[in-house]
Amino acid sequence: MINSRQAAFEALYKVCFDSAYSNIAVDNVLSDLKEGRAFAARLVYGVLERLITLDYIIEKHCEKPKPKLRIILRMGTYQLYYMDKVTSAAAIDESVKLAKANGLKYYSSFVNAVLHKIDNNRIDIDALSDLSVKYSVPQNLINMWNKAYSSETVLKFLPFLNGRPPLFAVPNPNKTDARDLCSLLTDEGVKCSVYEDVVRIDFTADITTLHSFKAGLFHIQDISCVKAVSALKIVKGDTVYDFCAAPGGKSFIASYFAGNSGQVYSFDLHKNRVALMELSAERLGLRNISARVNDASVYNSNLASADKIICDVPCSGYGIVRRKPEIRYKELDSVKALPEIQYQILSTSSKYLKSGGRLLYSTCTLNKKENEKVVYEFLKNNNDFSLCEIKTFFPGEDGGDGFFYSVIERK
């Protein structure tokens, strides 16, 4: 039977060397575990989050180990440095066993020796002056952020790029409010608190097992996204189009604002994602949502005009590296084509907007080429639109993700 460390090893190998997404790799591997899922998940996400830091520590004691060996050493080092409940002896012994179980018996004594050296020669990570190593963020990404937002701003949000991020439960106003929802969640064993008009969840087991979730009392949405949709100023009776809508969180908030006299159309390119939005809308009891397949980059003459439009475009995701830690290690050149795609989606979406209507353009990235530059290029080429609001959220103490939005109005 597979154990938690073996499961973590397999998931990490798929992410680091087969280019799998961490959430998919974790879900696939952990589904085979009978117990220890939380431990395995923390190990996977923790190692991915701290790759640069871990390699810095490891390479002081050995030179560029082979892929499988590197993963085992990373796992062992992470346990030594970041998992207080795991003893040094357990971290080292289990890493040796892991080497033997994965065809590396010849290197088992090497693993034992290296991890003992790492354990006996601790480095004070917090005292490091190299920000890339200290926070495990590639230097080229830090350089980009420094240039775009200033080094002072970057220094403030770097500490919030690591660690378990909170979840935000958006109450379904048709059934409850933030205060009552927080009370119900607390009764279900969830560590939470009221934060503005939502509930901040700092610890829980599987959200989907909660009675309050099954009863449709809330959905999960980052606080930055909640504020962005609120800025659109949707009112009762509005017709709202949400392009690139899956998994549907912004559509659900729009549904609450539009009310039964309004209508929200949630579009996505993929049929399976549309089906998931339909299931979520049904769970929440939202009857004013219609989920449909549609390509946001291609004009659809069958669609009428809308009062409000949500245009949350595909992006590099640099604002959500806490939730998908492998994103931070992307080569910057790999996202160079995104602004053109984003501009196309924005331009196409704007064609459906009524005169006097408002459009929300948003991303979950911190990259001005995908954010401000796209918006200002659109406004330069479309004189019948004006900018109402523009905002960038940085990861911070409230727990929200990095996020960008702008609200554009048709004259």
Question: How would you explain this protein's 3D organization?
Answer:
The protein is an alpha/beta fold. Helices cover about 45% and strands about 15% of the residues. The protein has 17 helices and eleven strands. The strands form two sheets. Strands 7-6-5-8-9-11-10 form a seven-stranded mixed β-sheet, sandwiched between helices. Strand 5 (about 240-245), helix 14 and strand 6 (about 265-270) form a beta-alpha-beta unit. Helix 1 (about 5-20) crosses helix 5. The mean pLDDT is about 95.
Name the shape in a single word: globular
Strand content: 15-25%
Give the biggest beta sheet.
7 strands, mixed
Q: Determine the N-to-C terminus distance.
A: 64 Å
Oligomerization state = single chain
Low-confidence stretches: none
Give the radius of gyration. Answer: 23 Å
Arithmetic mean of pLDDT: 94
Following the backbone from N to C, one meets helices and strands in this order, namely HHHHHHHHHHEHEEHEHEHEHEEHEHEE
Estimate the helix proportion, in percent: 40-55%
Query: What's the arrangement of strands in the largest beta sheet?
Result: 7-6-5-8-9-11-10
Summarize the structure.
The chain has 411 residues and is α/β, with parallel strands linked by helices. The chain has helices at 4-18, 22-30, 37-49, 51-58, 67-82, 88-101, 108-120, 131-135, 139-149, 151-157, 178-187, 211-214, 223-231, 249-258, 271-284, 338-350, 372-381; strands spanning 167-171, 191-195, 198-203, 218-220, 239-243, 263-268, 289-293, 306-312, 353-363, 385-393, 403-410.
